[in-house]
Amino acid sequence: MAMARFGATAAGGVNRQALSAEDFVAQAELVRWGEALGLAASRDRIGNLFLRLPGTDPDAAPVLSGSHLDSQPTGGRFDGVYGVLAAFEAVQAIIERGVAHRHPIEVVAWMNEEGSRFAPGMMGSAVFAGARTEEETVSVRDAAGVSVADALAQCDIAMAQVPLRALGGPVHAYVEAHIEQGPVLEREGIPVGVVSGIQGKHTFRVEVLGEPSHAGTSERRERKDALIAATAMVQALAAEFHDAEDITKFTVGRFEVFPNAPSVVAGKVVFSIDLRHPRSDRLRAMSARIEPICRAVQGPCEVVVTRLSAADSLEFPTALRDRIRSIAGRLDIPSLDLPSAAGHDARYLHPIAPSAMIFVPCHLGITHNEAESAEPGDLAAGARVLADLLVELANEPARKESE
Ligand code: GLV
Ligand code: MN
Ligand code: MN
Hints:
Blueprint: H1 21-36, E1 40-43, E2 49-53, E3 63-68, H2 81-97, E4 105-110, H3 123-128, H4 134-138, H5 148-158, E5 173-179, H6 184-188, E6 192-198, E7 200-209, E8 213-214, H7 226-240, E9 249-251, E10 255-258, E11 264-265, E12 268-277, H8 280-296, E13 302-311, E14 314-315, H9 318-330, E15 335-340, H10 346-349, E16 355-360, H11 376-394
Parallel strand pairs: 3-4, 3-5, 5-16, 6-15
Antiparallel strand pairs: 1-2, 2-4, 6-14, 6-16, 7-12, 7-13, 8-11, 9-12, 10-12
Helix pairs in contact: 2-11, 7-8, 9-11
Bound molecules: glyoxylic acid and manganese (II) ion (MN) (2 copies).
């Protein structure tokens, strides 16, 4: 609740865009809380923030745990921030109980998970893990034309007191706690979800280029109305991806009209596509159909379809899932296995280190919505399981991390 002050909305939610003033204040607060526990803060060039608890072996790769502090414009108080603070609470408990561990444990807040201000999302984790280049990432611009590079320069000023560290590096293991963002755990009355994997997600930017002209004088045969073409594309795509079983998820969440003036035929429309499916082969096949479908209804306009990200479905290692289940059992906390329909930074850590996710219930599965809510008891249960798992992982022998 203390974090939710930063970017608080009138309706009780959070609007904390990546690398915004609100984000920097939230990060600075986390750094202060960490300092009070003796945690060393550091940040990397792409805007990821770390709080480090040393282990007994200074050369061992860290166990990382966290999520993100940024939110959607109509975000809630739990998506992302819960995973950061669950890791923080776990570390606090480890310190207060004096639990010995070999590997350092680092709390991490990844830069721009949501992809709301700068698309696509999961920038910090993707660049950290080497899945995307720093160059392509820093050149992305927000709707106001501010680049990630510009925003990172602001971060350098706002977070000047936090030392920079090298980007990337070996990771012994990664664990991310998160609200489920679905209704299953609450419905079943189960406080902890063992996440089996994450469904695939491909994102696109579609630019429809027409020609601005006078709403009263321009003749129909001369018009290049980007809005008419773009809405036809959206309808054609929605029809194509309509799925009676409701497994395919197709969303156009952003639709920008230029010049967006009542008496000007739209000269340009830019819209987003978020397409998801648990089967990677199906997802790839659907993605390949997007451009031809748009072209088929472009009329006199031009269309440019740009794929922003293409993340296939993944499954987390069974060994870690088994451990979460058995830790929950040991703590007398009921748990349930379930997949994640939402995307998470764990997706990008998964290829570089053994990774896992712990879900907790959120009310009615409402999320990316200011009404998002969760029960303190469930949040605590997830953090307890996380704490025990972090201790176990941090006491493992070192892997050959570079392999
Ligand atoms: C992450 O927020 C997602 O959109 O799945
Ligand atoms: Mn999230
Ligand atoms: Mn989210």
